[in-house]
Structure formats: structure tokens, C-alpha cells
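TICKET: design request
STATUS: open
ATTACHED STRUCTURE:
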């Protein structure tokens, strides 16, 4: 496997992403954790030094251990990782001045020195576009290194010690703005001897072994939300430890049509996983009664969720672990630069604070994975595609799709309208093209005419967006026929709605949810 030493760059996780796309197994570890003993134990086949925000000129700035260079394995240093490597091996780094700092697009050209690292680069003598983001820069390369590529702002843009197989680049090959960057990673892992045979099947076996080693014969509780992440985590853990796992499914009464039944049937009947279905809708809806402020709603739901989960979990005797479907993007490992080996980890928001409160240790078998990798793992575990491909659904559920006061009447109308909209999308074969689609019921009644009568019913808004990660989003360009047909169906099939609108706001400035 490959070790990525994290020096705190914002884009370190993208390096892992590029490597997994090459079917190479890698692990990211913060630099503080990477000691000589750690390296001995892990015995990586190659190492990547990430970028980072610090300056190697600063006394006490982050370093890899000397042992990293002594292992005899290929190393690739990126940005800060290049500077650290050069300084450690006898080169020089100069502090950033305005004239030499570089942020943004730059072009690297070949110097003519050949290297396996450059296969597919500079092929027709052209320059390659790269993304630079550095204050300091290397001013003198270390003995044994040669320059393979150069840019106006970074004379040592690509450097290599071919004998020792140490490579270092000033730019970030992992970001999209370096369009051919994946090729550099591919070349690096090939010359390190990786064949690209790592698969989700292998991950599953490794994860199961790790869970068994961590848990032993003790008991684990898993909070199941019905979403893909917690479901995949639950099925994986069940495969590892069987009935030592109990799932708790908190039903806050804010789920979509048939959702609770589907979750219970799938886990209890299909997978035979011990499952507590905590139907607490009266409690949640009671506390939410009369509340219309969005933040207050979220706080109430978050607080009750923890209370309810804790109540049911306490009834499970001898549980020592809490399982969570935390994904890599949920994990912010902020590397502390003020000294000290502390690593702050942000836990999954839905059960934040629970493990400490309950004195439970965490089992997080998906911590290293991205969303699409979790889906691939779910497929390996036999979860149905219709389930795995489901759109994200927020923890607070329909509460944040019901602006204003939440009533059982409005929720019932919302559920029916939402089901029609999703059915329309599936019928037209659009479900997988859309990141997320739902209906919001608006806190306003409007006048309509149906048959010979006047109606005075709720208006609703359809929302459908495309997105890569939920951080930005565009509204989905449905045809007018589709929209017209959907509006007709909702008004005909859902009593209580007489007006349908389509929300065409992008994010930003809008958010995906209405609250
Ligand atoms: P927004 O509305 O902020 O949503 O554009 C971005 C993505 O996050 C989901 N979302 C949540 N998910 N708990 C969750 O688990 C929450 O409190 C929450 N709020 C928003 C939203 O559905 C979208 O996918």
C-alpha cells in the first residue's frame, strides 16, 4: 500500500481519490503520527508528501521522519512536500516574496531530461497546464536531483532523483486545474510497482478483518438513518461480527412515503440484522409544534435525536462501540501546527457528541471512502441498486422541506406530492442524472379552480438539482412537457395542492434545501 503523509493541505483527500481511481490502496496519515515505528509497521511501498500551509523556513515546521528517506521506496513530494524534501536532502528553499509567490494557472515545459514520471506528458513538445499555489519556493535543488520541468515562476517545477526514485513537484497534480495530473500519479504508482489490482472486494475483506480485530467479542450499536452510508456500514459490520451488532433506527416521523417500512423490512427481514425501530414521531412532532424558525427546528431535532438514540442504546446491554457511516469528506483532520500531536476530528453531524456522552468508542469502517466508493462497496455487499443509488436525504428530513409550521396534514400532503414527483422522474429515466430531487410544501394557500369550484389549497415547489458534491448545484433543465405533466399529476392525485412551481435557483446563491 501507499502512504500519504498529510502536511495539512486542503486537497490531500484528492490525492487519495486519484490513487483509488488507479485501483491503488492508500492511507492518509497526519505527519505527527508518522514515526519511525509507524513506518516499520506499515511498510509502505511508496510515499507521497502532501502539500501544506506552513513554511519550511519556520523553526519546528512539519517534517517527515528521516526513516521515510531510508526505506528505499519511491517518494513523491507535492508543493510543501517538495520543499520539505529539498531542504531535508540538502537543497535550499527561499521565503515567498510577492515576485515569486504563485497562485493559479501556470504552464510547465520540459527540460529534456527523460523520466518514467513523464510518460504521457509533453508528448508533442507542448507545455502542460498546472495549478500552482505556493508562497515559498525551492531555490536550489538537493544533490542528486535533476530538473524535468520548469515554469516561469517555478524553475524547479518538476524535479527527480532518478537513482533513489525521489520525485517532487511544485504544483498540485491532484486538482482539476492540472488537467493531465492523474497521469503523473499513474506514472508514479507504476514505477513504484503497483499493478492497480486493489478493488472494493479487497477493501471489503480488509475492512471486515479490521472490524473483527477492533471489536473482538464485544457489542456494537449502529444508528441507522436509512441513508446509503449508515446502511452500508451496518451491513458490512454485520458481515464482520453478526449479531454482536444491533441497529437503532430513529423514526422521527419526518421520513418520506413508505420509507420507514422499507428500511425495517430490508434490515430486519432481508439481512436479519437485529433492529430496534424507535417510532418517536409523536415526540418529535409534538416538540416541533408551532415552531417555524429553521434553526430552531434543526436544534430541536438534533437534541431529540440524541436523547432518543441514547435511551434505546442504553437498553442494549454491554455495548461498547458506536458504529457510524462517516465518510472521508465528513472527516476533517485538521493538522495542528501550533505544536503538539493533537488531531481534531469533526464527527458526523447527525450523532455529534454522542460517543463521548455515552462513553462509547467509534467504529467507522467507511472513513477512508468517498461517496461513490461507498456505493461500490454497497453493491459488493449485495444491497439493491435501487437503494444504493438513492438521492441524499437530510438528517432533519421533511422538516426542512416544510417551511413555516410543521403539521401532520402538511407532512401527509408533502409525502404524496414528493412520491408523485419522484415517480415521474423514474418513469422518464432521469433519476440517476439528478443529484437530488424533492418537493417542498410552501406555507401559503392560493386560489384555484377545479371543475366548477373554487379551491384554496397549498402551493408546492419542485426542486431538482445536479451536483458533484452538494457544495454547488444547478437546477435540472426538465422539458416543459415533463414539468407540465408532473404539475397535472400532482394537482390531480394530491388533495390539498392546487399550484405547482419549479424552483430554478442555483446554489449558490440558493441552497439545495429550502431551510
Ligand atoms: P444545502 O441545503 O445546504 O444542502 O444546499 C446540501 C446537502 O446537504 C444536505 N443537508 C443535510 N444533510 N443533515 C444532513 O444529513 C442536515 O442537517 C442537512 N442539511 C442539508 C442536503 O439535503 C443536500 O444534499
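STATUS: resolved
RESOLUTION: sequence designed for all positions
ATTACHED SEQUENCE:
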Amino acid at each position: 500500500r501507499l502512504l500519504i503523509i498529510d502536511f495539512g493541505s486542503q486537497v490531500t483527500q484528492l490525492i487519495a481519490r486519484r490513487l483509488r481511481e488507479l485501483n491503488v490502496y492508500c492511507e492518509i496519515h497526519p505527519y505527527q503520527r508518522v514515526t519511525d515505528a509507524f513506518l516499520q509497521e506499515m511498510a509502505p511501498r511508496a510515499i507521497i508528501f502532501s502539500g501544506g500551509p506552513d513554511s519550511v523556513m519556520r523553526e519546528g515546521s512539519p517534517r517527515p521522519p528521516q526513516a521515510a528517506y531510508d526505506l528505499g521506496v519511491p517518494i513523491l513530494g507535492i508543493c510543501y512536500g517538495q520543499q520539505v524534501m529539498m531542504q531535508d536532502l540538502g537543497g535550499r528553499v527561499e521565503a515567498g516574496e510577492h515576485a515569486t509567490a504563485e497562485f493559479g494557472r501556470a504552464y510547465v515545459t520540459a527540460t529534456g531530461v527523460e523520466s518514467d514520471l513523464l510518460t504521457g506528458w509533453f508528448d508533442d513538445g507542448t507545455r502542460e497546464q498546472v495549478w500552482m499555489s505556493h508562497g515559498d519556493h525551492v531555490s536550489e535543488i538537493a544533490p542528486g536531483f535533476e530538473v524535468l520541468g520548469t515554469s516561469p515562476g517555478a524553475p524547479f517545477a518538476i524535479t527527480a532523483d532518478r537513482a533513489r526514485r525521489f520525485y517532487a513537484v511544485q504544483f498540485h497534480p491532484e486538482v482539476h486545474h492540472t488537467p493531465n495530473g492523474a497521469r503523473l500519479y499513474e506514472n508514479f504508482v507504476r514505477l513504484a510497482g503497483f499493478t492497480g489490482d486493489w478493488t472494493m472486494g479487497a477493501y471489503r475483506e480488509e475492512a471486515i478483518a479490521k472490524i473483527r480485530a477492533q471489536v473482538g467479542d464485544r457489542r456494537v450499536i449502529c444508528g441507522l438513518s436509512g441513508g446509503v452510508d449508515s446502511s452500508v456500514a451496518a451491513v458490512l459490520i454485520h458481515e464482520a461480527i453478526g449479531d454482536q451488532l444491533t441497529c437503532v433506527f430513529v423514526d422521527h416521523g419526518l421520513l418520506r412515503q413508505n420509507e420507514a417500512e422499507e428500511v425495517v423490512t430490508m434490515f430486519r427481514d432481508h439481512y436479519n440484522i437485529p433492529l430496534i425501530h424507535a417510532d418517536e414521531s409523536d415526540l418529535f412532532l409534538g416538540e416541533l409544534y408551532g415552531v417555524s424558525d429553521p434553526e430552531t427546528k434543526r436544534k430541536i431535532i438534533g437534541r431529540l435525536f440524541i436523547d432518543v438514540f441514547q435511551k434505546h442504546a442504553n437498553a442494549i446491554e454491554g455495548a461498547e462501540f458506536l458504529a457510524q457511516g462517516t465518510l472521508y469528506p465528513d472527516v476533517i483532520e485538521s493538522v495542528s501546527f501550533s505544536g503538539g500531536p493533537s488531531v481534531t476530528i469533526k464527527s458526523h453531524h447527525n450523532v455529534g457528541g454522542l460517543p463521548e456522552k455515552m462513553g462509547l468508542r467509534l467504529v467507522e469502517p467507511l472513513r477512508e471512502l468517498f461517496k461513490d466508493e461507498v456505493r461500490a462497496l454497497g453493491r459488493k455487499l449485495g444491497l439493491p441498486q435501487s437503494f444504493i443509488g438513492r438521492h441524499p436525504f437530510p438528517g432533519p428530513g421533511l422538516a426542512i422541506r416544510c417551511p413555516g409550521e410543521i403539521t401532520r396534514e402538511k407532512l401527509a400532503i408533502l409525502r404524496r406530492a414528493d412520491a408523485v414527483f419522484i415517480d415521474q422522474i423514474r418513469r422518464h429515466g432521469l433519476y440517476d442524472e439528478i443529484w437530488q430531487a424533492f418537493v417542498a410544501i410552501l406555507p401559503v394557500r392560493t386560489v384555484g379552480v377545479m371543475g366548477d369550484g373554487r379551491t384554496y389549497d397549498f402551493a408546492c415547489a419542485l426542486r431538482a438539482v445536479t451536483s458533484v458534491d452538494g457544495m454547488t448545484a444547478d437546477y435540472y433543465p426538465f422539458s416543459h412537457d415533463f414539468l407540465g405533466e408532473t404539475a397535472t399529476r400532482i394537482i390531480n392525485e394530491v388533495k390539498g395542492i392546487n399550484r405547482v412551481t419549479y424552483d430554478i435557483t442555483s446554489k449558490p446563491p440558493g441552497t439545495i434545501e429550502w431551510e
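CLOSING REMARK: DSSP finds 15 helices and 22 strands in the chain. The chain has three domains: 2-191, 200-388, 405-502.
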